[in-house]
Amino acid sequence: MTQDSQAPRPPERPTDDADAHIGRRIRERRLMLGLSQQQLAQVIGVTYQQAHKYETGANRVSAGRLYRIAEALDVPVSWFYEGLGASRPQAMSRRQRLGLELARNFFLIRDERHQEALSQMARALAEAPPRAAE
With a threshold of 0.85, does the pTM exceed it? Predict the structure, then answer.
Protein backbone atom coordinates (compact mmCIF):
# COMPACT_ATOMS: atom_id res chain seq x y z
CA MET A 1 0.00 0.00 0.00
CA THR A 2 1.43 3.39 -0.96
CA GLN A 3 1.16 6.65 0.89
CA ASP A 4 -1.37 7.98 -1.64
CA SER A 5 -3.79 5.08 -1.20
CA GLN A 6 -4.04 5.28 2.59
CA ALA A 7 -7.38 6.40 3.92
CA PRO A 8 -7.33 9.95 5.24
CA ARG A 9 -7.37 10.35 8.99
CA PRO A 10 -10.64 11.56 10.44
CA PRO A 11 -10.54 15.14 11.65
CA GLU A 12 -9.73 15.61 15.32
CA ARG A 13 -12.77 15.41 17.54
CA PRO A 14 -13.57 18.75 19.12
CA THR A 15 -13.64 18.75 22.88
CA ASP A 16 -17.17 17.98 24.02
CA ASP A 17 -18.53 20.23 26.76
CA ALA A 18 -19.21 17.23 29.01
CA ASP A 19 -15.70 15.83 28.48
CA ALA A 20 -14.16 19.21 29.28
CA HIS A 21 -16.35 19.61 32.37
CA ILE A 22 -15.46 16.17 33.73
CA GLY A 23 -11.79 16.87 33.02
CA ARG A 24 -11.96 20.15 34.94
CA ARG A 25 -13.61 18.37 37.86
CA ILE A 26 -10.91 15.66 37.86
CA ARG A 27 -8.22 18.34 37.95
CA GLU A 28 -10.04 20.31 40.65
CA ARG A 29 -10.34 17.28 42.94
CA ARG A 30 -6.78 16.14 42.25
CA LEU A 31 -5.50 19.57 43.25
CA MET A 32 -7.70 19.58 46.36
CA LEU A 33 -5.94 16.42 47.46
CA GLY A 34 -2.49 17.73 46.58
CA LEU A 35 -1.81 15.01 44.01
CA SER A 36 0.29 15.45 40.90
CA GLN A 37 -0.95 14.19 37.53
CA GLN A 38 1.77 11.55 37.72
CA GLN A 39 0.52 10.31 41.08
CA LEU A 40 -3.09 10.13 39.87
CA ALA A 41 -2.01 8.38 36.67
CA GLN A 42 -0.12 5.76 38.64
CA VAL A 43 -3.07 5.06 40.94
CA ILE A 44 -5.55 4.65 38.05
CA GLY A 45 -3.12 2.72 35.85
CA VAL A 46 -2.53 5.12 32.96
CA THR A 47 0.37 7.25 31.73
CA TYR A 48 0.91 10.83 32.81
CA GLN A 49 0.04 11.90 29.26
CA GLN A 50 -3.28 10.05 29.39
CA ALA A 51 -4.20 11.64 32.74
CA HIS A 52 -3.36 15.03 31.23
CA LYS A 53 -5.61 14.34 28.25
CA TYR A 54 -8.46 13.36 30.57
CA GLU A 55 -8.10 16.63 32.49
CA THR A 56 -8.06 18.76 29.34
CA GLY A 57 -11.02 16.90 27.84
CA ALA A 58 -8.91 15.85 24.86
CA ASN A 59 -9.73 12.19 25.60
CA ARG A 60 -13.01 10.87 26.89
CA VAL A 61 -13.01 9.05 30.19
CA SER A 62 -14.72 5.66 29.97
CA ALA A 63 -17.27 4.71 32.62
CA GLY A 64 -14.93 2.15 34.16
CA ARG A 65 -12.01 4.57 34.23
CA LEU A 66 -14.19 7.31 35.74
CA TYR A 67 -15.18 4.87 38.46
CA ARG A 68 -11.49 4.18 39.22
CA ILE A 69 -10.74 7.91 39.23
CA ALA A 70 -13.64 8.51 41.62
CA GLU A 71 -12.29 5.83 43.96
CA ALA A 72 -8.77 7.27 43.76
CA LEU A 73 -10.04 10.79 44.50
CA ASP A 74 -12.49 9.61 47.18
CA VAL A 75 -15.65 11.06 45.63
CA PRO A 76 -18.77 9.50 44.12
CA VAL A 77 -18.88 9.35 40.31
CA SER A 78 -21.76 11.86 40.39
CA TRP A 79 -19.36 14.48 41.80
CA PHE A 80 -17.75 14.84 38.37
CA TYR A 81 -21.12 15.74 36.82
CA GLU A 82 -22.06 18.43 39.34
CA GLY A 83 -22.55 21.73 37.54
CA LEU A 84 -22.74 20.10 34.11
CA GLY A 85 -25.22 21.91 31.93
CA ALA A 86 -24.61 25.27 33.56
CA SER A 87 -24.70 27.96 30.92
CA ARG A 88 -20.99 28.63 31.09
CA PRO A 89 -18.13 27.23 33.15
CA GLN A 90 -17.65 29.47 36.12
CA ALA A 91 -14.19 30.75 36.85
CA MET A 92 -12.96 30.01 40.33
CA SER A 93 -13.20 32.89 42.74
CA ARG A 94 -10.17 34.08 44.63
CA ARG A 95 -11.61 32.46 47.75
CA GLN A 96 -12.00 29.10 45.97
CA ARG A 97 -8.42 29.26 44.65
CA LEU A 98 -7.14 30.03 48.16
CA GLY A 99 -9.17 27.12 49.54
CA LEU A 100 -7.68 24.75 46.97
CA GLU A 101 -4.19 26.02 47.71
CA LEU A 102 -4.77 25.60 51.45
CA ALA A 103 -6.01 22.04 50.97
CA ARG A 104 -3.10 21.16 48.69
CA ASN A 105 -0.55 22.55 51.14
CA PHE A 106 -2.28 20.89 54.10
CA PHE A 107 -1.83 17.46 52.52
CA LEU A 108 1.86 18.22 51.98
CA ILE A 109 2.41 18.68 55.73
CA ARG A 110 3.98 15.42 56.90
CA ASP A 111 3.80 15.94 60.65
CA GLU A 112 0.33 15.03 61.94
CA ARG A 113 0.77 17.34 64.94
CA HIS A 114 1.28 20.26 62.59
CA GLN A 115 -1.80 19.24 60.60
CA GLU A 116 -3.84 19.10 63.81
CA ALA A 117 -2.52 22.49 64.94
CA LEU A 118 -3.42 24.06 61.60
CA SER A 119 -6.86 22.45 61.72
CA GLN A 120 -7.48 23.83 65.23
CA MET A 121 -6.34 27.28 64.14
CA ALA A 122 -8.69 27.22 61.15
CA ARG A 123 -11.61 26.17 63.40
CA ALA A 124 -10.82 28.99 65.84
CA LEU A 125 -10.61 31.56 63.05
CA ALA A 126 -13.84 30.31 61.49
CA GLU A 127 -15.67 30.67 64.81
CA ALA A 128 -14.24 34.11 65.62
CA PRO A 129 -16.72 36.96 65.23
CA PRO A 130 -15.93 39.24 62.27
CA ARG A 131 -14.01 42.37 63.17
CA ALA A 132 -15.55 45.74 62.53
CA ALA A 133 -13.97 47.80 59.75
CA GLU A 134 -11.34 50.13 61.16
Answer: no
